[in-house]
Amino acid sequence: MAIVTIRDLNKKYENGFHAVKDVNLEIRDKEFMVLVGPSGCGKTTTLRMVAGLEEITSGEIRIGERVVNDLPPMDRDIAMVFQNYALYPHKTVFDNMAFGLQMRKYPKDEVLKRVRDAADILGIEALLERKPRQLSGGQRQRVAVGRAIVRHPQVFLFDEPLSNLDAKLRVQMRVELKRLHERLETTAIYVTHDQVEAMTLGTRVVVMKDGYVQQVGEPLVLYGQPANKFVAGFIGSPAMNFVDVSISGDGRHAETEGLRLNVPDRIRAHGGKRLTLGVRPEALRIANGSDEHGFATKVDVVEPLGNEILLNFRAGGAPMVARVDPGVRLKAHESVRFAVDPERLHFFDATSEAAL
Amino acid sequence: MGRGRARQDLHLRAEQVRVSRLTRLLESEKALAAALLAPGVAILVIFIAYPFVMALWYSLTSIRVGDPGHFVGLDNFTKALNDLIFQQAFKNTVFYTFWATIFKLALGMWLALLLNRSFRFKRIVRASMLLPFIIPTVLSAFAWRWMFDPTFSVMNWALYHGGIITDRLPFLSSGDWAMWCAVLVNTWRGMPFFAITLLAGLQTISPDLHEAAALDGANAWHRFWNVTWPLLLPVTLVVVVFSVIQTFSDFQLIYVLTGGGPANSTHLIATYAYQIGVGSGLLGEGAALSLFMFPVLFAVVWVQLRYLKRMENG
Ligand SMILES: Nc1ncnc2c1ncn2[C@@H]1O[C@H](COP(=O)(O)OP(=O)(O)O)[C@@H](O)[C@H]1O
Ligand SMILES: [Mg+2]
Known about the structure:
Chain A is α+β, with helices and mostly antiparallel strands.
């Protein structure tokens, strides 16, 4: 039960590498905050600084009212779940979960009660006497979570806890983690490189790149109003399509070879400029007679996924994907016209890449 | 031209037949296994099994240099058991092995833990630490003998001129002192092996476990006993087994450092067996003495390996 405040946080490693740059975040009480970004963007480093496992180069981290910059990990009242679980291989499941309580000198029956409760919540009562190597990946994962929750910490930290699981189990554990968070109501910071995980788990999501925070917001805000081209391309799958366009002199159309689209009113001021246009695959639809401004193209590759069909094609010199209804019957190399609602177009400054 | 090619074909065919016969022989797993094992078995037989069997046979006879002797049953063994010097040597060997192993383990562990941290000049320190290990024992034992020498001891000189002592210390001239000196030299020599092996073991322990333990509230001491020590135990047991075997059967170091003196007070089983068997030429008695090492070493190895196995399974 705590607010975590991160102010002007920086991390420079000993080799001079600047991994985290001027990060400012406020993680609200009981919030599930997800840090997402491509590999190497500084998510783990940020999390480890909150945990106290990595020294802070500059800035300030507060947990609740306390500045924890110089507190050792054990005094920060946090618990962490590691990517490879980091279970003690020689201890039983029970002892793995009990260790943190024993180190803190909890009375025996309290330890027993808490471990039992946690095992009950996670459905691992039957495994308490086993050693970690006698467990499946999913069971180890639960034990690692169990070890974190017995302590009733103020903040949970997760570093890609699901990435060692197979795809199916990952989806299942994702739901369980979400349920668990709703039940425990503890502030959580969760690191992942998987935007689907970020979107499904996060109360709010922080998108990072090259050590910088790109945008902080609720999942649907990130999806609907990305702050820049990077966030727009990172959130959503398949990714947003981008194409460089010129805005016509009167500011009414975006044009490039073989493509001419109506633009929303807010772009009118940018008449004559070159911009990057972004359109999500699900914003593209097959044009019908009443659509004035569609564009004609030829389908390259059809990916029938069952619940939807992905159509790959080129437009304005760029490869694009459209996500259409499974009822659509189109074959590769067939001609097609696509249309898009102007309000669903995104525009980015060609140099700063900021959303317009 | 035509005939030339025919002859060449014939050659080729003959070659193929020969090759395929050899290949077939090698492809039979049994034959291949036998072929690959043969050199190893031969070496074991010539250098280990044959001398061991000969020692067993000698120990049952009154053989001495220049006299094949005759079968005497267990006489050599009963004589050894009643031999006060042998009793002393046996106690010395146990004492020497016990303390040297304890010190090597404790100091080797300490060094390994230090070397497992990152610091400047780490590589140089790590490499130089191996020096005692790579210098031939005989040479280093000689060097130590000079350092302990009654008249020329550099340590006595330093302590005396440093004002720490007023009388020379009797390093190798008092029985008790000499034994501890031998333990010291053995520790000095054996510690690098412990340190390097334990360091290799330490490096296999995931840093995540230490971090998890730190988050769980364990201080450095608790982390050592709850993470490092249990995870290092298999490696530790293996080095301890090696060290016990080597120390219990040690010869060179004592032979050079004290020769078993003063007054037989530092004899080990090996040096005493050598003195009787080779020095006095009583080959049968010497063989019987040296065989006393065998059951002890066997028991130590057996207990430790069994423990190791249980740990791996449990
Ligand atoms: N101990 C270290 N020393 C130097 N550079 C490091 C160290 N740890 C991580 N880095 C670098 O810092 C960057 C961020 O790492 P990390 O926070 O682990 O990224 P991720 O977002 O994938 O979790 C990476 O480029 C990584 O190579
Ligand atoms: Mg990471």
